[in-house]
Amino acid sequence: MTGWGADAVSVRFGSRLALDLVTVTAVPGQVTAVVGADGAGKTTLLRCLAGALAPSAGAVRRPPARRIGYLPSGTGVYVDLSVTENLTFRSVTYGIPASAARRHIGDYLERTGLDAAADRLAGQLSGGMLRKLGVVAAMLPEPKLLVLDEPTTGVDPVSRADLWWLIARAAAGGAAVLMSTTYTDEAARAARVLVLDSGRTLAEGTPAEIVAAIPGTIAVLPGPPATAEERRLAWRRAGAWRLWQPPPVSLPAAAPSAAALSAVSSPAAAPSAVSSPAAPLQAASSPADSASAPPSPAVSWPAAPSSAAPSAAVSSPAVSSPVGAGPPGRRSELVTPDLQDAVCVAALRRELDAAGPFGALGVGDA
Amino acid sequence: MRAMIVKEFRQLRRDRRTLAMMIVMPVVLLVILGYAASFDVPDVPTVVAGPGAAAVARALPKVFALAGTYEAPPAQGDAAAQAPAAWARDELRDGHAAVAIVTGTAPGPLVLIDGSQLFDAQKAVQELAALQGGTSGGPPTGLAARAATGTATGLAAGPATGTATGLAAGPATDPATGLAAGPATDPATGLAAGTAATTASVAGSALADPASVQILYNPELKTSFVMIPGLAGVILVFVGTVITSLGVVRERQAGTLEQLAVMPLRPADVFGGKVIPYFAVALADLAIVLAVGVGVFGVPFRGSAATFALGALLFVFVTLGLGVLISSVSQTQGQAIQLAVMTLLPQVLLSGLIFPLSSVVVGVRWIAYLLPLTYFTEISRGVMLRAEPITSLWLPFVCLAGLGAVVTTLATRRFRAFLAPGSGR
After folding, report:
1. What is the mean pLDDT of residues B38-56?
2. How close B423 comes to chain A (CA, Å)?
3. Rounded CA gap, A213 and A350, in Å?
4. Labelling B224: which of A55, A102, B10, B398 has CA 20 to 30 A away?
């Protein structure tokens, strides 16, 4: 795939492997989301892409620094400069002509509602406003590659909508946007998603591909998981328990080795549904069309045994017929999984792989 | 409270730098203050010029440590007669000696004291007063009074006439000039051209005669005259090192330094962009300090402004480099301040600003020669008080430039390593 990105990138901090052979591509005109829990390696990957960090191994494809926009995990702006001063500094540094800079700055400030605070010190802005300022500053040079590290984290829903408008506009303008997020509902709006965990790739593809590649089915339990097996395969979401029902497959003798899944070891801790921003991403860049995309074998599930990926759940109706799950007398309902379910299942599989053979846990046995 | 105490100890244990500062600094300060902090000058570097200089030098009291002699070649005319005095003044101006004895002058030998070397000058005045008191058989009135009061009125008091000291052992003394008039003395030059005993008597008489003493550059031996040129350096260290280190670390803490690293800026652009404003502020500070020093405290500025400016630029260059270096090895502003203070303190104590370098024991004195303020103090006092030319100040200039090159190279490398992508940060 053409575009900017990282090829088999590894980053080591001392004895700790922060990234392990991660590959990602940011395609011009599209938004690529990097999803993962805290400590998954999202920031490290984005720093590599932006040029703030040299990988220990692998290659990074990126445009010249003048054509990269970067929002670091912090705000990236000077809290003791005003909003306008911050943006002016950025535009001068990137060599943007004064007239064009004035026009862009005015436009962005007005659209994001920051115009009323144009003369206010950045340090006096709210968290959401500060984040918007950071994104605007990153977009100002009209970059070919826009790298945004969790632009919406800790931001209220209205500000998130504004931020998504900005992101969609950048992609519509031809920028390859690579953004990290902990919100799977946001990632579902991206054209492509990379799921990271403990520095490794859990899944990569379009949201639909990733969802379609979930092996087995997802069901909603009528109550808390009753058995040890259910507890291992269940997570809590939106007030209900969901259960992954792996397909009955025979496993190869040696399960693929995978690092212990510490960050997502508790699927119940995965971000629950967050009210989605109003601005549709597709309106600008038409990147994500997860609901209608057909399941595709192109999706990457690196930790999965090849025989364990018969994707079936996505073809189920929105609310499926009851199926037996758990002890007799308990009935659960199949649901159409989404990206959050896919991430949880991927994490579960990694955890189970790390814990030992599937058989030992009674998972996947015929 | 117990939980708080335990927490503080845990944090302290992990903050190695603070812990080291709390434990090591008192020891370092004790050593420095014990060995370095002394106002006692063991001896006063002295030069002797004029006819019979070598013999006079041999007869000098022990406290006047010989730093050189000059015997004018035989020649006629006023220029030849003035040569020893001119040489002696040059030696004082260039800081090679604190006391110069000029023989062969009329009406008698002349003792010149460099008042810009305050402690040496005070020691010399004290010793001369003792000699004067010894030779007159009474209390040291003239020079001692002068040293105490800062006036020149006591100079003519008590002409030395006695021969009580071993040095002033001349057979006869001319009460009018205070000069030991040996058997073959030329009254026009005051030269004792006879035996060794005669020349020795010249020295003794000259030292014992307060009328022949001149204190140059700081006649009233004012402390402010010698402190303000050095204090200008301290202020530059404060601005250059402390403030600069904070400015860069603030970027690091705020995360904006990483933003700068990915922007289309060369490390040199960032380095220069960070340092130049502080450079300008430091120079403005220097101008203010000088203006106050000259205008309010009456400190003379006798030398070349260009020479001083060059020295100041070099010094600011070093201090700013030091600031960036400190910031590049500090994670927080607190750490930067700690390190900056650890560089500031030895400079104040060991640079010769407060305590004379000659009183610092050799085992500690070498540290002084690693400190930029040592050289700037030498330059600023030399230029402001003694009008020392750059030709005689070449050594501190070269040392400052060398320090600047080393510090700036280290700082640039560290800074570049931080700004350029690296997997280790």
Report:
1. 81
2. 5
3. 15
4. B398
Q: What is the pLDDT of residues B181-240, one digit of tens each?
A: 333 334 333 333 344 445 455 555 556 565 578 888 888 888 888 888 888 898 888 888
What is the signed CA dihedral for A194, A195, A196, A197, rounded to 10 degrees? -170
Angle at B57 between CA B56 and CA B60, to 5 degrees: 90
- One-character DSSP codes across B109-160: -EEEEETTSHHHHHHHHHHHHHHHHHHHTS---HHHHHHHH--SGGGGSS--
Q: For residue B299, how many other CB atoms are within 10 A of its CB?
A: 22
Residues 109-148 of A with CB under 8 A from B: none
pLDDT of residue B417: 76
Dihedral (CA of A227, A230, A232, A234) sign: negative
Q: Which of B262, B423, B424 sits opposite A51 (nearest CB)?
A: B262
Burial pattern B375-390, b for ≥16 Cβ within 10 A else e, equals: bbbbbbbbbbbbebbb
Query: Which residues of chain B neighbour A43 with C-beta distances below 8 Å?
Result: none
pLDDT of A10 strictly over 90: yes
Size of interface A-B (CB pairs under 8 A): 56
Element spanning A48, H or E: helix A42-50
Q: How far apart are CA A281 and CA A32, in angstroms?
A: 12
Q: What span, in angstroms and rounded, lies between the C-alpha atoms of A240 and B219?
A: 93
Distance, CA of B198 to CA of B179 (rounded, Å) = 11
**Residue B395: pLDDT above 80?**
yes
Can you state the angle between helices B333-350 and B223-237, rounded to 10 degrees?
160
Q: Residue A291: pLDDT above 50?
A: no
> Minimum mean pLDDT among A45-49, A320-324, B102-106, B198-202: which range?
A320-324
Ramachandran category for residue B221: left, alpha or beta (phi over 0 → left; psi -120 to 50 → alpha): left
Q: In what order do the strands lie in the sheet with A16-26?
A: A16-26, A4-13, A57-61
- Taking the C-alpha atoms of residue A101 and residue A81, their distance in angstroms, rounded to an integer, is 17
Lowest mean pLDDT, pick from A186-200, A307-321, B36-50, B52-66: A307-321
**The pTM is what?**
0.69
Q: Is the ipTM of this complex over 0.90?
A: no
Going B382 to B383 to B389 to B393, the CA torsion angle's sign is: positive
Q: What are phi and psi of B424, to 5 degrees?
A: -90, 5
Q: How far is it, in rounded angstroms, from Cα B142 to Cα B156?
A: 7
- List % helix, strand, coil for chain B (3-state, nearest 5): 60, 10, 30
Amino acid at B178: G
Place of tokens 């395969």: A233
pLDDT tens sequence across B272-299: 888 889 888 888 888 898 899 899 988 9
Structure tokens at B32: 């420095």
The Cα–Cα gap between B125 and A94 comes to 66
Q: Which of A75, A77, A93 sits opposite B264 (nearest CB)?
A: A93
Q: Residue A200: is it exposed, middle or buried by C-beta count within 10 angstroms (0-12/13-18/19+)?
A: buried
User: What's the CA gap between A53 and B419, in Å, rounded?
Assistant: 9
Mutation for A interface: B251, B252, B258, B418, most A CBs within 10 A: B258
The tokens describing A289, both together, are 């069309």
Beta bridge partners of A31: A177
Which H or E element spans position A34?
strand A31-35
Contact A72 B261 (CB under 8 A): no
From A257, A279, A287, select the one nearest A355 (Cα to Cα).
A257
Cβ atoms < 10 Å from Cβ of A183? 22
